[in-house]
Design the sequence.
């Protein structure tokens, strides 16, 4: 039976955090737009909600969450590939770049939107970056 090393456990934590963040990013209430309009002297507000994977032409701040979700998806795929191959943990520039882009995008999304879902996603992606860094410090 194959025993998990501490570095493999860290990779599992990274992968689990990325999958959990992707699930939150895919939910249709992560991003919110508010449109106010006046009709007959009454102001009404229209609230629309979207997932991170939605592309809107009229909302420039949707591109940061989209970049975050694509980087998270790519990082999760790379980590899953390394877990399935059972290869020794190696620091790959693409993994590091994807994790840093997704974490920075999550921070920016939370700063812009200030929603609980974006905050939890930010924490999960920060955990993934920390666990990825820790796995190379383990001997």
Sequence:
């Amino acid at each position: 039976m194959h025993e998990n090393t501490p570095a493999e456990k860290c990779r599992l934590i990274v992968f689990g955090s990325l999958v959990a963040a992707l699930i939150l990013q895919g939910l249709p209430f992560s991003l919110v737009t508010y449109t106010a309009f006046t009709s007959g002297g009454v102001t009404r507000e229209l609230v629309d909600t979207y997932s991170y994977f939605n592309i809107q032409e009229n909302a420039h701040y949707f591109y940061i969450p989209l970049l975050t979700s694509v980087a998270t998806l790519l990082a999760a795929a790379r980590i899953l590939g390394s877990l399935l191959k059972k290869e020794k943990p190696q620091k790959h520039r693409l993994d590091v770049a994807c994790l840093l882009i997704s974490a920075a995008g999550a921070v920016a999304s939370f700063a812009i939107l200030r929603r609980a879902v974006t905050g939890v996603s930010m924490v999960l992606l920060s955990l993934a970056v920390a666990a990825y860094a820790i796995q190379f410090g383990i001997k």
In short: The first strand starts at residue 31 and ends at 39. The beta strands are 31-39, 42-50.
